[in-house]
Amino acid sequence: MIEDVQSLLDEEQEQMFASQSRARSTRTFNYDTYHTLEEIYDFMDLLVAENPQLVSKLQIGNSYEGRPIYVLKFSTGGSNRPAIWIDTGIHSREWITQASGVWFAKKITEDYGQDAAFTAILDNMDIFLEIVTNPDGFAYTHSKNRLWRKTRSLTSGSSCVGVDANRNWDAGFGMSGASSSPCSETYHGKSANSEVEVKSVVDFVNDHGNIKAFLSIHSYSQLLLYPYGYKTESPADKDELDQVAKSAVAALSSLYGTEYKYGSIITTIYQASGGSIDWTYNQGIKYSFTFELRDTGRYGFLLPASQIIPTAQETWLALLTIMEHTLNNPY
Amino acid sequence: MLWITNIAWKMCRFGELNQNASQEVTLSMVVADPENQINQKKERKVDLVFTTELYNPEEGNKRLGKCSARVFFRNEKPRPAVNVTCAQLIEKKKRHEEDYQLYKRMKQLQNPVDVVSIPDNHGHIDPSLKPIWDLAFLGSSYVMWEKTTQFLHYYMAQLSRVKQWKTNDDAIDFGYTVLLHEFSTQEIIPCHIHLVWYPGKPLKVKYHCQEVQTPEEASGTEEGSAVAPTELSNF
Q1: Using CB atoms within 10 A of its CB, is residue B120 exposed (0-12), middle (13-18) or buried (19+)?
Q2: Which of B29, B77, B118, B49 is nearest to B222 (CA)?
Q3: What is the pTM of this model?
Q4: CA–CA separation, B165 vs B175, rounded Å?
Q5: Which residues of chain B lie closer than 8 angstroms to A143, CB-CB?
Q6: Which of A164, A296, A302 minimises the CB distance to B157?
Q7: Separation CA B46–CA B31 (nearest Å)
Q8: What pLDDT does residue B1 have?
């Protein structure tokens, strides 16, 4: 009886402490630590409140378990301008990606009007940033299993939970490079876009109609990848994509010397079907890239929080390179 | 091909640097690109050269040695044969000293050590717990090598549940569960590992991994590509 009361008190104190230490502005927000879903969603609201002319928050759907799925829109005006899409956290255990996404969001608001090259980008294009692409999985990594990767959808006829959201897209769906077993980490789901987390993005991209670069962020391995993952055939724009990747990686390395490799998914990492950038490329979004951030296996998914800011900083340089190329090469 | 160097340095570390358990070895880079050779007997041979460094955040990078290795897979089976030579820059005496320091630190730890999760979910390892991680990594390297094929390669994701208890002969008797991350399937594989260590003596490793049921994976009883080196076989 007494033990129960104690744990209740402990929990209450933890919550009070949490609310006291909750950031009241994006200036006091801790970028060098990992955050919960609630903290990241609070951050988004703060960022919008502080930058109402530049940032807005869009809800593109609800997760399987009913959590809102948000995308931040950065825009200086115009109507349906050509846009850059960036997503982080599609695989929930890759915590460095959501953490970097938060940092990117702040960086955008800091650099617009201050950095000439970036200002030119945002004066002509919009940026869409989905920080927590898989909110159910992310919540689960905090509450139950730090190494959870998939969504949290239930599969009828199986006791296993979840679909690999990056095997669920309609590009080579169900082919070699994904698993048909619901218990597997790379389970593709019962059909393409069966996952609401994926369908929400697909619908958004189709409705928008003017996205020119699609950048999906994962960890780990330190790679910059372009299509395809589901087949060995090279994309028509292979030479250009390879050149862009080369420049982006050089920019990234220039900051801290972090070494990246680049190439197509299938030749550089492994065969993977139903992946996001294969679908977006096939839809005509030429500049479709996947990042695998730090590290190369020493800490893997459990990258120390002290590496969040350096990782985000160096990755931003690569993103800038791609965004600039997109701006300067309209199609 | 970076993952191939991963196996080679694990072997290097486990075999050669078994004498030097306290040093954490980090593969720095491949100097010569590995040559991809598959012959008629379905053997796959990879030659590579790499350097190893001591990574200690407080002391900065210290070059330990340069290694060259040949990794040899046969019939897509696990336990590749690894022929590795590392030219050690740190002399044997110093390595033994540092091993003994690690041993002392482990002995001084609260007994039994009953720790959950190293690193914690935020990637942090308390400095007092680092020796545990080092030793666990050593044992895990052996297990990872045993399971590695040309298609399956492993990383140590996290230590969960650690138990240390004394033995009569004062060796470190150390049981733990390690979560291995297999890269091509993205699976997390829990392995229970029991190792017994005394500085200067070969590490003894016993383990049991929860196997994921996939057709490509070799079973634990299947013959590997390599005969295990003799200094590892006394367990």
Answers
A1: middle
A2: B77
A3: 0.86
A4: 8
A5: none
A6: A302
A7: 14
A8: 37
Using a CB-CB cut-off of 8 Å, the residues of chain A touching B188 are 147, 185
- Bridge partners of A213, per DSSP, are A84, A287
**Residues forming a β-bridge with A215:** A86, A289
Contact B158 A147 (CB under 8 A): yes
Of the residues A195, A292, A314, A324, only one is catalytic, namely: A292
Q: Which residues of A touch B184 (CB under 8 A)?
A: 270
B189: phi then psi, degrees, rounded to nearest 5? -115, 115
* Residues whose CB is less than 8 angstroms from the CB of residue A305 and which lie 6 or more positions away in sequence, other chains included: A32, A33, A34, A99, B122, B123, B124
CB contact under 8 A, B123 and A302: yes
Is A303 touching B (CB cutoff 8 A)? yes
A292 is catalytic: yes
B220-224 mean pLDDT:
35
Q: Distance of CA B82 to CAs A175, B74, B78, B100, B146, Å? A: 34, 12, 12, 28, 11
Per the CB < 8 Å rule, is B157 touching A147? yes
Distance (Å, rounded) from C-alpha B106 to C-alpha B129? 9
Q: Which two tokens stand for residue A222?
A: 């330190």
ipTM: 0.91
Q: How many residues does chain A have?
A: 331
Q: Which residue has the tokens 């619901």?
A: A182
Distance from CA of A49 to the nearest CA of B (A): 29
Per-residue pLDDT tens digits for A256-301: 999 999 999 999 999 999 999 999 999 999 999 999 999 999 999 9
